[in-house]
């Protein structure tokens, strides 16, 4: 059973998502309608400008209602981090260091991107791959891809099979 406080928190979160969607809608419409194809300059009417300002102010107010204090924001960030770890994400220091790709989440983004670690730990670098481009990354979380999970499972089963049938193991004396 949910409490009144829990329902209120869900309502505030939904209000934030709705306000954020409204920002995207207003700004996207304005950009598409008034973008100069030659100069890429954006021109709009005063009422369109005020509409986008109002949309962003409403989004900021919804975020403030959800997380009125710094402590509230930190607690919500911790809960999101904990839930993502429950969903299979992990600290990027534990990512593969063999050049294989994995999924990453970056701070300040709502996307999931493909990335890899290049170089020797701990002096190497994370790299983000997106749309054919590659750029430096500082991921906050990573997870192995489905292909990598399958590869690891295959290796695990092969390893298990070797130990199930020791006659397949090489003897140091007999090569």
Predict the CATH topology of the largest domain.
SH3 type barrels
Q: Do you know the CATH architecture of the largest domain?
A: Roll
- Secondary structure: helix percent: 40-55%
Determine the number of helices (DSSP H or I, runs of at least 4 residues). Answer: 4
Strand order of the largest sheet: 4-3-2-1-5
Indicate the proportion of strand residues: 5-15%
Provide the gyration radius in Å: 24 Å
Mean pLDDT: 90
- Report the uncertain regions: none
Number of strands: 5
From the N-terminal CA to the C-terminal CA, the straight-line distance is 65 Å
> What is the number of independent domains?
2
How does this model look, in words?
The chain is α+β, with helices and mostly antiparallel strands and 175 residues long. 50% of the residues lie in helices and 15% in strands. The chain has 2 domains: 4-66; 92-164, Roll (SH3 type barrels), CATH 2.30.30. The protein has 4 helices and 5 strands; from the N terminus they run αααβββββα. Strand 1 and strand 2 (113-118) form a beta hairpin. Helix 1 packs antiparallel against helix 2. The model has no long low-confidence stretch (mean pLDDT 90).
Topology readout:
Layout: H1 4-34, H2 46-66, H3 70-86, E1 101-105, E2 113-118, E3 125-130, E4 133-137, E5 141-144, H4 146-164
Antiparallel strand pairs: 1-2, 1-5, 2-3, 3-4
Helix pairs in contact: 1-2
